Amino acid sequence: VTAHHTVLVSNIIGVERNEYTVPTAPAEDAPRALQSMWETWQEMHEPGTRRSLREWLHDSQMDLHDIHIGYSSGTFSLQERAWAEQLYLSMCHEVQKQLDPQNRAHRPIIDELQERMADKMYVNFSLFQSMPDAWGIDQLFPVLPLEGLDQVPERRAVLLDITCDSDGAIDHYIDGDGIATTMPMPEYDPENPPMLGFFMVGAYQEILGNMHNLFGDTEAVDVFV
């Protein structure tokens, strides 16, 4: 049950985002998986290459998987793992720039990369207290930034609350193409973090959620027009 007149407003208090910096080339005696990732990166920038974007991603994912396994067994160092993960993010970013949203064949890759590379935005609220249906029954609630609407939403983000529970995240969002696992957001400005509006949050949400993690009651304002 939704209440069309009800809007939950909260602020973003922090963001965790991926930075795309290209590492230097690995040492000549570096393990083969590191060398292979670097070769894929170089091939991506060669003019006239005939390999597909999917092939580049697949090869880099396989190498990164081997490095993760090797790190667990002590074959790779922490520095080597970090180098590989940073290079992989740069590869994903490079592939993302070459994708065409109007090309239906590119849509699965676009969705995959948007989810993998999305910013994590921490919002000053408790999902379990204010929007328990989003967690309990996967209810979809429209979510929009209330500021920065004159900016192009060039980032993708997932929203997390500030409770101690890892389930305190919104997993699905309404967008122009249907249902997505991330939402478009303007560039984040830590000096002026945007407010967010959660619309149609429904009747009985706070009654269902009750008190959670010692959060106080959400302030309520009645607006009459």
Automatic annotation (TrEMBL):
Entry's Gene Ontology BP terms: L-arginine catabolic process; putrescine biosynthetic process from arginine; spermidine biosynthetic process
Keyword NAD listed: no
Pfam families referenced in this protein's UniProt entry, alphabetically: Arg_decarb_HB (PF17810)
Listed EC numbers: 4.1.1.19
InterPro entries, alphabetized: Ala_racemase/Decarboxylase_C, Arg_decarb_HB, Arg_decrbxlase
Keyword DNA-binding (UniProt): no
The entry's keywords: Lyase, Pyridoxal phosphate
Parts of the chain that traverse the membrane: none
Residues covered by the Arginine decarboxylase helical bundle domain: 28-114
Cofactor: pyridoxal 5'-phosphate
Molecular-function GO term, any one: arginine decarboxylase activity
Gene3D superfamilies in the record: Lyase, Ornithine Decarboxylase, Chain A, domain 1
Protein's recorded name: Arginine decarboxylase
Record lineage: Bacteria, Pseudomonadati, Pseudomonadota, Gammaproteobacteria, Enterobacterales
